[in-house]
C-alpha cells in the first residue's frame, strides 16, 4: 500500500536525480570550472584535485546537510503546530540557536567532554530554549495558537535575540565582526571539520522526526483527535520538538541563520504530492539538500568573484513564498 | 460495556461533573442531554481519558480506563470530537487508514490485509469510497464528518464516543449519519455514547438518555422516561411541550415562543359564513385549531378556511385527492390552509346558527343529506361502496380546548346528531330501524384557542351543553330544509 500510488515513485526518482545533479554541478562549477572526473583523477591536475576535495566537496556536502536538516525540521514543525508558516527561522528558533553559538564564541566556552561539539551543543540548547519560550508565550497569548499569533511571537523573539547578538558583537573587538558575516548564513570556508561536526546531529535529529512520521499524520487533525487514535501525544510532541531543535541548532552552528528553507521546501512538496508525512519528510529532506546546494552555487557565482551570503538567496525565494502561503491561508479563513 | 461510578471532576480545581453514576450495556446508544455548560463535554472528556477525574472511576469492560495504555484504549474506544478545520489534509483514504494506527506497532509497521479490509469496509459503510482519493479540505462538512466516522469505524473498537455528531449538518446528512451509526449498533453490536443538542434526534436514535443539570444526573432512562414536558422545561429553562412522534413510539418536543407571535384576535362570528352555489365557506380572521374527518386536511391541525363543497352525484370519488387540490388552486384557496368537505346536498339547504351562553360562544353549520341513513348497530349487514359525506357538521368554538376537550366535543356533537336523526325519524332503508347516521358523515370541531380555557367538553360542562343543544337544533333544521327541498 505504501508506494502503491505511482506519484510517490516519480517524486522519489525526480528528487534523487535532482539531488545528484545539484551535487554534481555544485562540485564542478564555481570561479573555476572543474570537471567532476577530477575527483578520482589526482594525476592530471593536482591543484584542481585539492580544490575539489578540500574546498568544494565539504562546502557542497555541508550545504546539503544544512538544507536537508532545515527542510525536514520545517516540515515537522508545520505538521506538529498545524501551521504552514512555521519554520525554524519564522519561529525565532534559528535566532535562539545563533545566540547560543555567539555566546559560545563570545565567552570562549569550550567544554572538554564535548570538544568540537561544544558549539553545536550550545547552539541546540539555544534553539530548544527559545522554542520552549516562544511556544509557551504564544499559548499564553492565545490558547488556540492561531497561525498569526505564533509567527508574531517568533518575530518578537527574533528581533529581541537579534539585538542581543548585536550587543555582544558591539561589546567585543574586531574578531567578532566576522561573526556578522557568518550570521547572515554561509557555508563557505568551513571545511570537513564542520561536516563532521553536524553530520551526527543531522542523523539523530532526522531519525527522531522520521520515527514520528505516522504520529505527525495523526496530529495534523489536532492533538485531541490524535490521542483518540492512540497516539502518545505528549511523547511524540517532545520528540519532534527535540528533533527539530537538534537539527536547527546544528545547522545554525555550521552555517549561521539561513531562512525560509524549512518553509519553501515542504510547501512545494505538499503542493505536489500531498501532506502524508511518510513521504513529505523524506522528500523534504532530499529536496532541501538540493535547494541549498543550488542556492549556494548561485550565491557564489551570480556576482563572482564577490560571494553573497546564502541567506540572501534563500530569503529572496522564501519571502514571496511566505507571502503567498499567508495570503492563501487568510483567504481560506475568510471564505 | 461502560460503567461510570461516582464520577466527579472538572478543570482548574473547579468541580463541573458531580458524582455521576450510570452504566451502558453493549449494543446500546446512550444520548447525553443537557443545557450549555451543564458538563456534557467535560463528562465525555473524562470518559475518553483526556481529562483525569478527581474522584470516582470509569470502567470499560470492567477494567479501569487508566489501566489501559493510550494505544490499548484506542483499540477499545474510538472518539469523534467535534469537527474542526485542519490546515493540512490528506486524502480520504489516508485519513481513514489512520484509524488503524493503534493496531500497528514497530518502526516499520506493516500494513496487513486485515487493515486494508477494515478500511475498505469502513469507507463503504459510510459511503465515502467514491471519493477516496479526494482531499478532505474539498469536502463539505457532512462528508468530512462521514470520513471521520469511517476513521473511527476503521479503529474497530467496541465503544464509540461522539460529541454532537450532527452539528452544522442539514437534516438529510443528520439522518444519514445517525442511520449509519444505528446500523453499526444493530449489525456489529457497537456501543455508542453521544452528546446531543437536539432533543428530538436524541429521542429518535437513542435507547437510553442521560439528562444532566449543573453537572449532576437529573434523569436517566428510556426516552419516554426522560423527555417529560415539565422536566425538560425545568432543566433547559425553556417553555416546551412534548407530543408523540407520528410514526414511532418516541416522544418529541417543540418550543413555545415566549413573545407569542402577534396572533390576531380570533372570534367566532356568523358573518364569517359565505354561501354560494358551489360551497359553504367559513373564513376565520386567524387560524383555528381543528380536528376533523374532512376529505382534505383531515386530522388535527391549524387552518383558517373551511369549505363544504356541493358536488354533483356523478362526482368521481376515487379521484377526490387530486380533484380537490385542483379545485382549490383554481379558486385561489391555499391548499395547506383550507379544510374541505364534500356534500351532495345543495348549499341552500345548509343550516347555520350562532349560540352563546355566558362566556361560551359557538357557531354550528350542518348540511344533512339523509337518503343513506344507516343504523350503525346493524351496519355489519351492508356492503356499501364509499360515497360522498351526507351529514356534514361544523362546530366553531370560541375558547381554548385541551386535547381531551376536543375529543369530548366530538362525542357530544355525534350524540346530538344521532338524537336529531331519531327525532326526525330517519330510518335505515335496509333494516327499517332508526338510523344513527348516514354512511359517510363528517365532523369538524374548530376552536380559536384563545380566551377561556376549557379543559373538558363533556355533556355537563358549559361548552358541552351548548354543543349538544346547538348541534341537535341545527341538524334538525338542516334535515327539515333538505326534506322541503327534495319534496319541491
From TrEMBL, chain A:
Swiss-Prot/TrEMBL keywords: Cell membrane, Membrane, Transmembrane, Transmembrane helix, Transport
This protein's name: Iron ABC transporter permease
Family recorded in the similarity comment: Belongs to the binding-protein-dependent transport system permease family. FecCD subfamily.
UniProt cross-references to InterPro entries, sorted A to Z: ABC_BtuC-like, ABC_transptr_permease_BtuC
Transmembrane helix recorded as keyword: yes
A Pfam family of this chain: FecCD
Localization, UniProt: Cell membrane
Record keyword Membrane present: yes
Matching CDD domains: TM_ABC_iron-siderophores_like (cd06550)
First-listed, main subcellular location of the protein, grouped into a coarse class: membrane
Lineage: Bacteria, Bacillati, Bacillota, Bacilli, Bacillales
Protein topology in the membrane: Multi-pass membrane protein
Organism domain of life: Bacteria
Record field: transmembrane: 12-36, 56-77, 89-111, 117-138, 150-171, 191-211, 238-260, 306-327
Automatic annotation (TrEMBL), chain B:
InterPro entries, per database record: AAA+_ATPase (IPR003593), ABC_transporter-like_ATP-bd (IPR003439), ABC_transporter-like_CS (IPR017871), AdoCbi_amidolase (IPR002808), P-loop_NTPase (IPR027417)
Keywords for the protein's UniProt record, in alphabetical order: ATP-binding, Nucleotide-binding, Translocase, Transport
Domain ABC transporter: 2-239
PROSITE patterns: ABC_TRANSPORTER_1 (PS00211), ABC_TRANSPORTER_2 (PS50893)
SUPFAM superfamilies: P-loop containing nucleoside triphosphate hydrolases
Name of the protein described by the UniProt record: Adenosylcobinamide amidohydrolase
Organism the protein comes from: Solibacillus merdavium
Amino acid at each position: 500500500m505504501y508506494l502503491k500510488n505511482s506519484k510517490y515513485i516519480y517524486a522519489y526518482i525526480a528528487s534523487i536525480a535532482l539531488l545528484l545533479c545539484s551535487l554534481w554541478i555544485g562540485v564542478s562549477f564555481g570561479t573555476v570550472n572543474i570537471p567532476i572526473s577530477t575527483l578520482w583523477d589526482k594525476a592530471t591536475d593536482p591543484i584542481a584535485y585539492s580544490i575539489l576535495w578540500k574546498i568544494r566537496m565539504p562546502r557542497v556536502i555541508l550545504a546539503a546537510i544544512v538544507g536537508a536538516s532545515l527542510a525536514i525540521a520545517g516540515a515537522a514543525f508545520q505538521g506538529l503546530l498545524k501551521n504552514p508558516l512555521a519554520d525554524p527561522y519564522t519561529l525565532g528558533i534559528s535566532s535562539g540557536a545563533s545566540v547560543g553559538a555567539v555566546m559560545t564564541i563570545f565567552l570562549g566556552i569550550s567544554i572538554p567532554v564535548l570538544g568540537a561539539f561544544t558549539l553545536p551543543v550550545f547552539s541546540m540548547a539555544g534553539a530548544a530554549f527559545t522554542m520552549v519560550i516562544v511556544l509557551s508565550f504564544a499559548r499564553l497569548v492565545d490558547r488556540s495558537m492561531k497561525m498569526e499569533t505564533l509567527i508574531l511571537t517568533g518575530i518578537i523573539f527574533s528581533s529581541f535575540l537579534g539585538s542581543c547578538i548585536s550587543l555582544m558583537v558591539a561589546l567585543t573587538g574586531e574578531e567578532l565582526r566576522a561573526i556578522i558575516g557568518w550570521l547572515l548564513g554561509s557555508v563557505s570556508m568551513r571545511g570537513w571539520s564542520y561536516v563532521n561536526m553536524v553530520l551526527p546531529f543531522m542523523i539523530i535529529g532526522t531519525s527522531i522526526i522520521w520515527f514520528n512520521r505516522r504520529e505527525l499524520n495523526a496530529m495534523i487533525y489536532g492533538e485531541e483527535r490524535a490521542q483518540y487514535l492512540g497516539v502518545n501525544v505528549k511523547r511524540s510532541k517532545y520528540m519532534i520538538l527535540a528533533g527539530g531543535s537538534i537539527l536547527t541548532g546544528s545547522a545554525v552552528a555550521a552555517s549561521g541563520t539561513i531562512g525560509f528553507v524549512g518553509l519553501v521546501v515542504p510547501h512545494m512538496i505538499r503542493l505536489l504530492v500531498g501532506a502524508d508525512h511518510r513521504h513529505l519528510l523524506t522528500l523534504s529532506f532530499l529536496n532541501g539538500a538540493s535547494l541549498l546546494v543550488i542556492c549556494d552555487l548561485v550565491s557564489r557565482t551570480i556576482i563572482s568573484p564577490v560571494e553573497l551570503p546564502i541567506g540572501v538567496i534563500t530569503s529572496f525565494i522564501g519571502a514571496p513564498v511566505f507571502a503567498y502561503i499567508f495570503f492563501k491561508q487568510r483567504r481560506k479563513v475568510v471564505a | 460495556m461502560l460503567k461510570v461510578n461516582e464520577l466527579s471532576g472538572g478543570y482548574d480545581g473547579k468541580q463541573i461533573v458531580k458524582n455521576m453514576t450510570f452504566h451502558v450495556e453493549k449494543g446500546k446508544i446512550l444520548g447525553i442531554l443537557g443545557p450549555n455548560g451543564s458538563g456534557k463535554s467535560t463528562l465525555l472528556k473524562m470518559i475518553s481519558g483526556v481529562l483525569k477525574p478527581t474522584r470516582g472511576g470509569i470502567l470499560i469492560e470492567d477494567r479501569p480506563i487508566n489501566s489501559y495504555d493510550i494505544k490499548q484504549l484506542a483499540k477499545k474506544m474510538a472518539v469523534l470530537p467535534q469537527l474542526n478545520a485542519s490546515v493540512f489534509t490528506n486524502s480520504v483514504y489516508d485519513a481513514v487508514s489512520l484509524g488503524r494506527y493503534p493496531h500497528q506497532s514497530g518502526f516499520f509497521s506493516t500494513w496487513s490485509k486485515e487493515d486494508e479490509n477494515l478500511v475498505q469496509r469502513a469507507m463503504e459503510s459510510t459511503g465515502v469510497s467514491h471519493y477516496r482519493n479526494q482531499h478532505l479540505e474539498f469536502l463539505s462538512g457532512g462528508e468530512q464528518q462521514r470520513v471521520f466516522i469511517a476513521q473511527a469505524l476503521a479503529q474497530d473498537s467496541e465503544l464509540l464516543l461522539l460529541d454532537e455528531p450532527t452539528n452544522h449538518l442539514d437534516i438529510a446528512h443528520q439522518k444519514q449519519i445517525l442511520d449509519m451509526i444505528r446500523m453499526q449498533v444493530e449489525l456489529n453490536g457497537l456501543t455508542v455514547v453521544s452528546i446531543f443538542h437536539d432533543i428530538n434526534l436524541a429521542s429518535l436514535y437513542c435507547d437510553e438518555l442521560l439528562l444532566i443539570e449543573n453537572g449532576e444526573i437529573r434523569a436517566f432512562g428510556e426516552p419516554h422516561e426522560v423527555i417529560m414536558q415539565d422536566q425538560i422545561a425545568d432543566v433547559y429553562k425553556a417553555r416546551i411541550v412534548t407530543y408523540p412522534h407520528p410514526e414511532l413510539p418516541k416522544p418529541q418536543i417543540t418550543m413555545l415562543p415566549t413573545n407569542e407571535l402577534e396572533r390576531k384576535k380570533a372570534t367566532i362570528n356568523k358573518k364569517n359564513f359565505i354561501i354560494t352555489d358551489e360551497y359553504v365557506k367559513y373564513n376565520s380572521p386567524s387560524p383555528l385549531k381543528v380536528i376533523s374527518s374532512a376529505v382534505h386536511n383531515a386530522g388535527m391541525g391549524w387552518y383558517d378556511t373551511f369549505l363544504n363543497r356541493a358536488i354533483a352525484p356523478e362526482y368521481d370519488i376515487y379521484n377526490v385527492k387530486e380533484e380537490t387540490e385542483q379545485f382549490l388552486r383554481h379558486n385561489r384557496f391555499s391548499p395547506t390552509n383550507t379544510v374541505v368537505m364534500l356534500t351532495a346536498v345543495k348549499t341552500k339547504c345548509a343550516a347555520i346558527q350562532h349560540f352563546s351562553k355566558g362566556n361560551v360562544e359557538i357557531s354550528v353549520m350542518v348540511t344533512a343529506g339523509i337518503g343513506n341513513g344507516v343504523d350503525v348497530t346493524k351496519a355489519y349487514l351492508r356492503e356499501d361502496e364509499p360515497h360522498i359525506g351526507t351529514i356534514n357538521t361544523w362546530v366553531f368554538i370560541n375558547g381554548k380546548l385541551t386535547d381531551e376537550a376536543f375529543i369530548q366535543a366530538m362525542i357530544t356533537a355525534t350524540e346530538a346528531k344521532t338524537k336529531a336523526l331519531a327525532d326526525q325519524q330517519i330510518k335505515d332503508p335496509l333494516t327499517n330501524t332508526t338510523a344513527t347516521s348516514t354512511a359517510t358523515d363528517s365532523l369538524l370541531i374548530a376552536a380559536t384557542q384563545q380566551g377561556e380555557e376549557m379543559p373538558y367538553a363533556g355533556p355537563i360542562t358549559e361548552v358541552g351543553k351548548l354543543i349538544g343543544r346547538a348541534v341537535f337544533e341545527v341538524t334538525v333544521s338542516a334535515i327539515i330544509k333538505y326534506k322541503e327541498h327534495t319534496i319541491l
